[in-house]
Protein: MFS general substrate transporter
Amino acid sequence: MSTKATEPTAEVAPYDVHWFRSTIFQVIVVGGVFFCAPGMYNALSSLGAGGLATPWYANATAAAGYVFMAVLCVIGGVIVSKIGVRLALLISSTGDIIYAGSLYLNSKNGTQWFLLFGSIFSGATDGLMYSVEGPIITAYPEPSHRGRMLGLWVFMRNAAPVIGGAIIFGLNAKLDSTGAVSLETYLVIIGIMCAGPFIALLLSKPEKVQRRDGVKIAFRKMEWSQTLYEFWKVISSRYILLLCPLFFTSWFYNSYIGTLQTQYYNVRSRALCAFVVPWGDIAGGFAIGYFLDHAKLSVKQRARWSWIFLMALNLGLWVWAAVITKTLQNNGPGIDWTSGSIFGKTFALFVMFEFATMATQTLLYWIISHMSSDFITLSYMTGVLRGVECAGQAVAYGIKSSNTTDWLSIGLNIGLIVLSLPFAWTVVRKIGVEDFEEIDFNPGSVDEKHNTDVDVREKDPEDVSVTDTKST
Structure:
């Protein structure tokens, strides 16, 4: 029976939990690994072209990396289900170290082949990481705190670009010319990245995690035939497929914005971007996270209002980007923070793009968290989310691997957003209204379902509320 969802009307009596096994500590561990690995990678990326002098070859290698990342994101859930979350997180924390090293060698010696290898290896391991972190941040937190836990995760993953950006800014603040950043920048970033594998060892196995509502996290062991059957059932679900166009376009903007920075900003202005722009991510994640936990609104209202606002904001930003692009083409390269209004307008645009994009991705994770309560299923779902996002980034960076017209990127971004809207709305309008039982395998027996996640659902106003339970 399909019913309308809302938040529980009464709090479940909290269980005593050990801090080391708590859900918040697990989110912090995942955020810490992300801080050291993809986070520091993002700090370099926020410089445009990884801090190199020209964007074209860097964009080409980034495109290759995103292809491998997309593949590993999609199949990563299968790997995680076989080797476990902690080992998968440990392995996935190593690739970005190699990539940062390749940037250093390319900047110092012009070793371009190693830059391609580093990007591919980094893409593969990051894809595996996204398959680990996705189900942890969606399945571990208690439902009433899920939005805020997503906000904490966003903060942790973007604290790296902020801190890394501060380091980069400090090392490059006096470089008022265009070109590559200093070599010391890469050495400091590599040192921070090396802490990632050690932090990964602190992660608890799912069955040892303690939630305040007493619900146990089930990590099912399956034969290969059952694993592949469930994997196919999830990735071919009509709801996941309907969301794929929005997944594809959600980070499509990044190559264009990074290329703009490299083409038109001098080094110290790009370093300032690396320090300040990630605050837009943090603000976007926390803002949407707290809104999605707003108990005075129904789940349906939160899903619809947040989606409508963010889609309108994304489209509005691309109109702004078109105006800014024309201004930049007339102004020419070498923009510094002393360049007046042209710097302020472009800088604000970069910050707002980060705000909108991270808020959109947080909303997508929240939507997926309402489509299943099973850890393995969520691993497959979030893997598809990140995999399709990475496929979009691969195409976007491929387009910007040569000096193509800026208007092609602008037109594609607007077109993809508009194309995705009717498909995504088909799913968004069901959140808080209908169940998604066809992609939730509910493996537990009746006895096992005593440890369930209470999900109160709301009928029409004239009906009384009912309580449904889902196996975790």
Remarks:
- The CA atoms of residues 153 and 293 lie 15 Å apart.
